[in-house]
Automatic annotation (TrEMBL):
Name the UniProt record assigns to this protein: WG repeat-containing protein
Source species, domain of life: Bacteria
Keywords per UniProt: Signal
Pfam family, any one: WG_beta_rep
Lineage: Bacteria, Pseudomonadati, Spirochaetota, Spirochaetia, Leptospirales
Organism: Leptospira limi
Signal sequence residues: 1-19
Amino acid sequence: MLKKYLFITFLLLTGSLIAQSKGITSFEENGLFGFKDKKGNVIIKPQYEQAMEFTKSGVAFVVSKNKWICINTKNQFLLETFLYDNGPDYIVGSLARYVEEGKMGFHNERCQKAIEAKFDFAYPFENGNAIVCNGCQLQPDGEHKRIVGGKYGIINKKGKLVLPIEYEAILSVDSKKRSAEVKQDGKSVTVKLQ
C-alpha cells in the first residue's frame, strides 16, 4: 500500500513539474485556487476549493461545488471524476472512473471518456478486466461505504462485457485462465470469460 502512495505521489510531482515547465502553476487567493502562466498572468481566475497541478496531458483535477472535476487549460469542464481516498480516482491500467448522471464509466489520462457511464458501480481495472454492477448501491459502513445488492459482470478495456451482468457476486477473476469464480443462486461456480 505504501508503494502505491509513493508511486502516486511521484506521478503527481512529475505531472506538476512538467506543467510548471510549461509555465502553468496553481495559486491560492482568498481561499480559492486558480492558475497562472509562466509570466504570472492569471489564465484561470481563483474559483476552485482545491486544485492539483496540470498533468503532462494538459488536464487538472479541481474541486468545484464539493466535487472533483477535470478541466483543461482553457478552464473547460471535461468530466466529474469518481471520488476515491478524498481525491480523484487513480488511473489504473491507463483508465480511471468517472461519474455522469449517477452512473459510472472510465476515462483516460486526458479525461476523455473511454467507456460510457452506464454502470451503477465499477471497480478499477485489474489485469485488463473490471468488475461492474447494476442495481447495486453504495451504503454507509462507518466512515467508509460498501457496495450492496445488484448483479455483477466483467468488462474489458474496450467496455465490452466478457461476463454478463447477471451474478450475485464476482469472487475472483483469473485473467490467465480467462475464468471467474462467481456466486450464483447462493453457490460458488467457475465460469469462462468470453
